[in-house]
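Pilot study result, target chain (330 residues):
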Amino acid sequence: MKKYQVVGIGNAMVDVLAKVEDDFLDDNGIEKGIMTLIDTARATELYGKMGPAREISGGSAANTIAGLAALGSRTAYVGKVKDDQLGAIFAHDLRAQGADYDTPLAPASHTAETGRCMVLVSPDHERSMNTYLGVTEFLSPDDIDESQMADAEWLYLEGYRFDGPDSHAAFAKAIAACKGAGGKISVTLSDPFCVNRHRDAFRTLIHDHIDLLFCNEHELKALYETDDLSIAFSLARKDVPMLACTVGANGAYAYVDGTDYHDPATASKVMDVTGAGDLFAAGYLHGMVNGRNPISCLRMGNLAAGEIISHIGARPEADLKALFGAHGLV
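Predicted structure:
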């Protein structure tokens, strides 16, 4: 048995969440519902304007790994933070969930800071993310422990990390070590604009290396440059043996070894959709690595996503094990 069921690689961030009115987005030139990369000056400016906020450890794949660890899966995470206050918060929060986290810290003398994401939640519960990558952008092959990758059943790669100059090489090193030891590879597309920035690289990675693709409907359509989801599904089936795609209020679809599956969304109070896709992936992966059938995996994903959107922040507040148990998914 391998030490880890899932090892995640991606951004190591702290989310700074605040509720805002639509006028705030307009006045500050923020496009609703997408992730925009910002620099230190812009991060400082927005933080000063956004009013009362909560700081919660985040990072897309880190949220997934935290959810998996909370469910009892054997996990580890690779993502770069600085030896500073926010870096300490990130490391503590992830380890407290039960995940291994040993990525070397960027030194306190580094010119960049620990990354943070300004998450602005508008009255319709949509989130607009303004991301300062900081030192997480500098994740490199030197941060990849090949023995750890080889000891993983699955790798879970974060699409946002494609924005880093050395991350493609880090991913390649991790993939080679994991696959060379019989492991499998999954990736999440993360964001339609991220897909648009790196479409060719995503297409090559997916076709050549990916066993399971996570996405939402907008990301999948962006990947295959079509407005027709059925066409995007058809093209994805040719590239990957397994696909898990969320479709908002209609739940999620999966494609596994030639068969399509669907599970409708579980009704939930919507407070903040930040992290919904991250926790969907956590639920789905937890079911999969523990031998559940695709419908059960989809249901676990939808339940975990439903828990996350019921409150502010992208880390679980409820006991996910108990939630699954209440739905007969123990």
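One observation from the pilot: The chain has 13 helices and 14 strands. A full batch analysis is planned for the follow-on phase.
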